[in-house]
Design brief:
Elements: E1 6-11, H1 19-32, E2 37-41, H2 49-52, H3 63-67, H4 73-76, E3 78-79, E4 86-89, H5 96-99, H6 102-113, E5 118-122, H7 129-135, E6 140-145, H8 149-164, E7 170-177, H9 179-183, H10 190-197, E8 201-206, H11 210-217, H12 229-241, H13 256-267
Parallel strand pairs: 1-5, 1-6, 2-4, 2-5, 6-7, 7-8
Antiparallel strand pairs: 3-4
Helix pairs in contact: 1-12, 6-7, 8-13
Length: about 270
């Protein structure tokens, strides 16, 4: 029997924490490990996944035409130029938000699951209808946040909704980690964040200016790796998803004062 397709929602409580960048780099990293991977852009209002993958000029059809049955799925899938195991299903017109329902997302994901080993869904940030539609079509999730009080507090809300919808497992990726700031108690510590959110840590991504450069070029870091600290972090996350035992290292301790502040906010339900 062939292994079951894994459908993974990549989500965040707020925008700007690196959700789409994680989706693109994780998609490349998994594909480079030899597994058939598709990334589905479910952020219909603010689609950017095609730009990060450098595929914006190759889009002919989108998820919208597939759902309307005006094209076949194979016509809408955009194969990555350098990584043959990776494909993108682009988001449709922002007006899709007006009529898209959970059943539509489930239908799209079911079609993709027939062809791929991994379906990574780039979810809209926040907890509105776009999130709920995307979450209805997935079995597991990765929540990404940064070590900031507001981002972690918003992530806590998303985790609560995922639990309500029965999505599991839910794992955590902590992005833009700066060890020096954590050591100086200017940023939440990794232990603080994992304790507060009560999620298993899938990986951390170190702050790296190469992320911005690669995003602007439409060339995910995991295409070339090089000497980028973030590229190695993304690759390790992909390997852990595949079941490899890659040790997790806390690059710095500290930040307890900020962690105590955030605990009080969450305990008093001040969202």
């Amino acid at each position: 029997m062939a292994p079951k397709t894994r459908t993974i929602l990549i989500c965040s409580g707020k925008g700007g924490v690196g959700k789409t960048t994680l989706t693109a780099n994780l998609g490349i990293a998994l594909a480079r490990q030899g597994v058939r991977t598709v990334v589905l852009d479910a952020d219909f209002g603010l689609r950017n996944l095609d730009l990060l993958l450098g595929l914006e000029n190759r889009i002919v059809y989108t998820a919208q035409e597939v759902l309307e049955e005006s094209c076949r799925l194979e016509q809408a899938l955009v194969k990555h130029k350098q990584e043959p195991n990776l494909a993108l299903l682009p988001a449709g017109n922002p007006r899709m938000l007006e009529w898209l329902k959970p059943d539509d997302m489930q239908r799209i994901v079911k079609m993709l699951a027939e062809q791929f080993d991994y379906v990574l869904i780039d979810c809209p940030a926040g907890v509105e209808d776009g999130f709920k539609n995307a979450a209805s079509a997935t079995e597991e999730a990765i929540v990404i946040t940064t070590p900031e009080v507001s981002a972690v507090r918003d992530a806590d809300r998303v985790i609560g909704l995922l639990n309500t919808q029965g999505v599991k497992p839910v794992q955590l990726v902590l992005n833009r980690v700066r060890p020096k700031m954590i050591a100086n108690q200017e940023m939440l510590g990794i232990e603080d964040v994992t304790d507060i959110l009560a999620l298993p840590l899938l990986g951390i991504v170190l702050e790296d200016e190469q992320v911005i450069i690669s995003t602007n070029r439409g060339e995910p870091l995991t295409l070339n790796d090089g000497n980028s600290p973030a590229a190695g972090c993304y690759s390790n996350i992909a390997r852990r998803l595949q079941g490899e035992n890659i040790p997790l290292i806390d690059p710095s301790k500290g930040g307890k004062g900020l962690g105590d502040k955030l605990r009080r906010l969450i305990q008093t339900k001040i969202f």
